[in-house]
C-alpha cells in the first residue's frame, strides 16, 4: 500500500470519526449555552470524580501526593483532607520527641559569622578528611578536617569574649586578621601559592615584601624579587572544589551532596557533578563564598563492620587528595547508610565544624537532583539570616508522616543547624542510629526545637506547650512562623519539582528517578544550567576576591 496509501487511510478514518462526533459536540455546546449553571455543575462533578480517581490511582507512584500536598499549602486542611481515597491515612501520634534538642540553645541566640574576602589557611592547617581515611573509620574525630584541640585553644584565647558569644565555637578569622606575606606564607592567595610552589621547585624561592599601598580592607599583596610574572595559562588549573580546603572564611552556602562509599555508580556520579559543577556557575571572585562537598561514610568488606574494603577506600583517598571535597562520617552504622543515623551525624559533625568552615546556610542535596545554584543564592540572600529558617519543598512528602521537606534540597540557616548539632551531640548513639526515613526524621526533630524568648518568659501560654496538638491535627502544615519556636518554614513548593509532576516550575531544582542515571542528569543540566552564570548583588562586591 505504501506510505501514500497509509496516509490516505488514516485521513479518511479521521474524517469519518469527526463526522460522527461533530453532532454530539454541537449538542453539548447548545446545552452549555442554554443551561450554563447546570452544565457547570455537571462538568465540575465529572472533573472532581476524575481527580479523585487519579489521586487514588497515583498515591503509590509519587505523583498523587504532590498535588495533594500542593492543595494543603493553598487550602484549609478541613477542605482537602477527604480527597485521597487510598490508605494514606494521617499521622495520629505526636512526632518523635528529642529532649536533648529541646534543651539546646535557641536558634536565634547564635552569632552569625560575618562574610569577608577569602582568608586562607596556613599549609599546616589545610582541611582534608583524608587524615581519617588513612586512620580508618575509628580514627579520632579531630582528624576530620577540624583543628586540633591545641589549635582550638589558641584560637579561643586570641578571640576573647567573642568566643563566648559564639557559644563555645572558635570564631573564624576575618580579613583583617590575615598577616602580611612573609610570615610563614600565611595570607597568600591561590595564585601566589601556586607561584610559590613553582619557584620552590626551581630552587629559587624569592623574598616576599609587604606592599606599602595595601590597606587593612585589601587582601595582602606581595612584591616578588627576581620573580617573573607567570602567564595565567601556564599555571595548572585546579578544580574549583579544591578552594574549600584552603579557606577558613565563612561561606554563604554549604552545598553538601549525599553520596555513598560503596558503589562505583556513586563514584561516576561524583565525577559527573565535578565536571559540571555548580561552582562553574559562580564568578571566580565569589567562589570562596560557596562550599561544595560530598558526604559519605566508609566501605566495609563485611556489611556489619570492619575491615575496610581497601580497593574502594584507596580510590576514595585518591579523590580526597585530588579534590579535597569529601566529608567522611566515621562511626556510621555498617559504615554507610542513609536511614540509620547518617542525616543526624552529618548535622552534628557540620555544626561542630568538622567540615572545615562555617556558612550562613547548610543544604543537603541528593545526587539525583539538578539544582540551579544562582537562583538559590538569590533567594537565600533575600532572607534574613538571623531568623531561624528551615527550607525545602513539602510537595513530595508522604502525607501519612508529620510535615517535612523532602530530601532533594533541604536547608537550614546557621542558627538552626548549630542548635540541632548541639542537641544531637548529647543524644545517645543508639537514638542517633535509630532507623527512620531521613527526610521524615529531619522534619520530626523540628517539633523538638527549643522555645523562643517569648515562650521562655511565658511558658504557660497555650501555644508554648511543646506537646500541644494542632487545631487540625498533624496532617496540615504547621503554623508559620511557629508560635513556640519562631521557626520559619520556607516552602519552595513548585520551585523544586519532578519532571513527572504536571505544573512544576522547578526553577530552583529538579529531582527525578531518571536523574539517577548520568546521561539523564547531564541532559537536564544542559537544558537548564548550561552557560548560566550568577550575577551577585552589588552589595556583595566588597567581599569579592580581587586576586581571583
From TrEMBL:
Membrane protein topology class: Single-pass type II membrane protein
Recorded superkingdom: Eukaryota
Location of region: Disordered: 132-186, 203-226
MF-aspect GO terms: hexosyltransferase activity
Subcellular location: Golgi apparatus membrane
GO biological process: one example: 4,6-pyruvylated galactose residue biosynthetic process
Transmembrane segments: 37-57
Sequence ranges of Low complexity compositional bias: 132-149, 157-168
Keywords: Glycosyltransferase, Golgi apparatus, Membrane, Signal-anchor, Transferase, Transmembrane, Transmembrane helix
Principal location listed in the UniProt entry: Golgi
Gene Ontology CC annotations of this record: Golgi membrane
Keyword Membrane: yes
Family under the similarity heading: Belongs to the glycosyltransferase 31 family.
Protein name in UniProt: Hexosyltransferase
Organism: Dioszegia hungarica
Amino acid at each position: 500500500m505504501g506510505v501514500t496509501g497509509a496516509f490516505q487511510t488514516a485521513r479518511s478514518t479521521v474524517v469519518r470519526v469527526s463526522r460522527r462526533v461533530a453532532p454530539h459536540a454541537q449538542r453539548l455546546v447548545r446545552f452549555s449555552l442554554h443551561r450554563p449553571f447546570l452544565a457547570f455543575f455537571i462538568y465540575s462533578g465529572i472533573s472532581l470524580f476524575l481527580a479523585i480517581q487519579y489521586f487514588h490511582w497515583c498515591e503509590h507512584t509519587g505523583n498523587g501526593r504532590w498535588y495533594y500536598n500542593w492543595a494543603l499549602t493553598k487550602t484549609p486542611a478541613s477542605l482537602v483532607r477527604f480527597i485521597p481515597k487510598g490508605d494514606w491515612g494521617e499521622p495520629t501520634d505526636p512526632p518523635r520527641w528529642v529532649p536533648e534538642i529541646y534543651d539546646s540553645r535557641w536558634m536565634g541566640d547564635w552569632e552569625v559569622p560575618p562574610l569577608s574576602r577569602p582568608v586562607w589557611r596556613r599549609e599546616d592547617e589545610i582541611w582534608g578528611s583524608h587524615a581519617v581515611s588513612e586512620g580508618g573509620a575509628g580514627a579520632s574525630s579531630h582528624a576530620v578536617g577540624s583543628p586540633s584541640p591545641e589549635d582550638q585553644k589558641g584560637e579561643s584565647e586570641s578571640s576573647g569574649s567573642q568566643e563566648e558569644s559564639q557559644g563555645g565555637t572558635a570564631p573564624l578569622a576575618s580579613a583583617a586578621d590575615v598577616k602580611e606575606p612573609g610570615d610563614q606564607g600565611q595570607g597568600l592567595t591561590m595564585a601566589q601559592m601556586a607561584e610559590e610552589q613553582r619557584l620552590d621547585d626551581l630552587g629559587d624561592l624569592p623574598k616576599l615584601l609587604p606592599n606599602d599601598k595595601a590597606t587593612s580592607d585589601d587582601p595582602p599583596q606581595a612584591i616578588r624579587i627576581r620573580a617573573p610574572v607567570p602567564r595565567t595559562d601556564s599555571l595548572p588549573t585546579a578544580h574549583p572544589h579544591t578552594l574549600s580546603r584552603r579557606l577558613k572564611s565563612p561561606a554563604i552556602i554549604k552545598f553538601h551532596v549525599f553520596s555513598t562509599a560503596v558503589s562505583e555508580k556513586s563514584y561516576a556520579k561524583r565525577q559527573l557533578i565535578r565536571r559540571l559543577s555548580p561552582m562553574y556557575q559562580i564568578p571566580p571572585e565569589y567562589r570562596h563564598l560557596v562550599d561544595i562537598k560530598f558526604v559519605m561514610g566508609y566501605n566495609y568488606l563485611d556489611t556489619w563492620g570492619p575491615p575496610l574494603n581497601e580497593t574502594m577506600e584507596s580510590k576514595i583517598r585518591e579523590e580526597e587528595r585530588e579534590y579535597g571535597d569529601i566529608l567522611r562520617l566515621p562511626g556510621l552504622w555498617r559504615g554507610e547508610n542513609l536511614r540509620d543515623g547518617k542525616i543526624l551525624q552529618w548535622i552534628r559533625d557540620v555544626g561542630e565544624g568538622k567540615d572545615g568552615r562555617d556558612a550562613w546556610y547548610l543544604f543537603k542535596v541528593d545526587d539525583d537532583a539538578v539544582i540551579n545554584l544562582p537562583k538559590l543564592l538569590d533567594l537565600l540572600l533575600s532572607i534574613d539570616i538571623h531568623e531561624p529558617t528551615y527550607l525545602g519543598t513539602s510537595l513530595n512528602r508522604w502525607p501519612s508522616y508529620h510535615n517535612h521537606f523532602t530530601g532533594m534540597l533541604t536547608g537550614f540557616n546557621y542558627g538552626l543547624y548549630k542548635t540541632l548539632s548541639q542537641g544531637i551531640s548529647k543524644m545517645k548513639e543508639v537514638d542517633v542510629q535509630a532507623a527512620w526515613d531521613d527526610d521524615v526524621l529531619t522534619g520530626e526533630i523540628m517539633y523538638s526545637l527549643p522555645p523562643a524568648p517569648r515562650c521562655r518568659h511565658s511558658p504557660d501560654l497555650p501555644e508554648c506547650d511543646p506537646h500541644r496538638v494542632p487545631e487540625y491535627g498533624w496532617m496540615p502544615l504547621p503554623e508559620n512562623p511557629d508560635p513556640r519556636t519562631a521557626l520559619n518554614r520556607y516552602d519552595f513548593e513548585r520551585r523544586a519539582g519532578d519532571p513527572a509532576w504536571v505544573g512544576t516550575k522547578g526553577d530552583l531544582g529538579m529531582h527525578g528517578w531518571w536523574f539517577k542515571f548520568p546521561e539523564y542528569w547531564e541532559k537536564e543540566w544542559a537544558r537548564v544550567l548550561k552557560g548560566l552564570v550568577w550575577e551577585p548583588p552589588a552589595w556583595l562586591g566588597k567581599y569579592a576576591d580581587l586576586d581571583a
